[in-house]
Amino acid sequence: MLGVEPQDIEVLKTELTLEPIRADSVIFLQTANEILHIEFQTLPQSTPAIPFRMLDYSVRLKRQYKCDVIQVVIFLQETTNEVVFTEEYRDNTTTHHYRAVRIWEQQPALFLNNPALLPLATLARTDSPQSLLGQVAEQIATISDREERQNIAGCTEILAGLRFQKDIIRQFLREDIMQESVIYQDILQQGRKQEALKMSISLLNYRFSELDSSIIARVQVLSVEKLEALIKALFNISEVSDLVAWLDEEESN
Predict the structure, then answer these.
(1) Same-domain status, 141 and 70
(2) Which of 121, 141, 158, 229 is deepest in the core (most CB within 10 A)?
(3) Which residues, in sequence order, are CB contacts of 94 under 8 Å at separation 6+?
(4) pTM of the predicted model as reported, rounded to 2 decimal places
(5) Residue 2 forms part of a structural domain
(6) What local confidence, expressed as pLDDT, does residue 186 receive?
(7) How much is the pLDDT for 177?
(8) Cβ atoms of 157 and 169 closer than 8 Å
(9) In a domain, 19, yes or no
(10) How many CA atoms within 13 Å lie on the side-chain side of 152?
(11) Whether 149 and 131 share a structural domain
């Protein structure tokens, strides 16, 4: 079949397992009976490589939903890497196509007229990035709904950080508005949890030379408030059994 004489032969399992993967955005377009799959990338490096990932996503989506899949990769940060100019996966037996959108090549007007797209406008094509950031800030200021204004400002700060220094962003976007954004607060909360988890694991390793992986797993899913409570409790916990009892009590609350 291969036309060559193999030196080593190994019989592989016929049962193929699929590792779970998570797409950025998958939307069912009911009128066209199609799926729109969108991936956002800041950097072109990826494992597995982006072209193969798009093939993998497409096959899985078609298997599950049995309809056509339209795929778009949106690259946010300007680069000359050839991956951002690639729109297909190809090997000896397969060719798969998708679309690549490079935000830095897009006209700002595409985003400035839609409040939901204002954060992307900060990365669009321009000869004067700071003037463009000013235009975005002006558009955000015209949004009448306070919660929507706060959330869009928070998202804008995040994406603008791919092009601008923090002090420049703060010149155009009011810090108090951004800090009230639920997206901004969620990011702060995640950072706070990472710090609390890091400190908790360090204290556990210091207090107990070896801990069962199941106990570590229980600690990792604690909320930031309970992690902070655990840090305080560890000053009075000397036995693993006491730690397990503390976890049992917290999980029951």
Answers:
(1) no
(2) 121
(3) 55
(4) 0.68
(5) no
(6) 61
(7) 47
(8) yes
(9) no
(10) 25
(11) yes
Give the three-state DSSP class for 36. strand
pLDDT tens-place string over residues 15-24: 777 777 777 8
pLDDT (tens digit per residue) in 178-187: 555 554 556 5
At 74 the three-state DSSP class reads: strand
Amino acid at 104: W
Q: Residue 70, SS3?
A: strand
* Domain limits for position 143: 109-180
pLDDT along the chain (253 residues), means of 10: 82 77 81 90 90 94 92 95 97 96 96 94 95 92 86 87 87 62 57 80 78 85 84 80 87 79
The confidence score (pLDDT) of residue 180 equals 52
Among 128, 145, 180, the domain-final residue is 180
- Residue 200 has a pLDDT of 84
90-109: b or e for each residue (b if 16 or more CB lie within 10 Å)? eeeeeebebebebbbebebe
Same domain, 128 and 171: yes
Residue 85 DSSP code: G
Tokens representing 226?
């309970």
What CA–CA distance (Å, rounded) separates 221 from 199? 14
Q: How many domains are there within the chain?
A: 3
Q: Are residues 209 and 175 in the same domain?
A: no
In the chain, alpha helices (H): 50-65, 109-112, 118-121, 129-141, 146-160, 166-172, 175-179, 182-207, 213-220, 224-233, 240-252
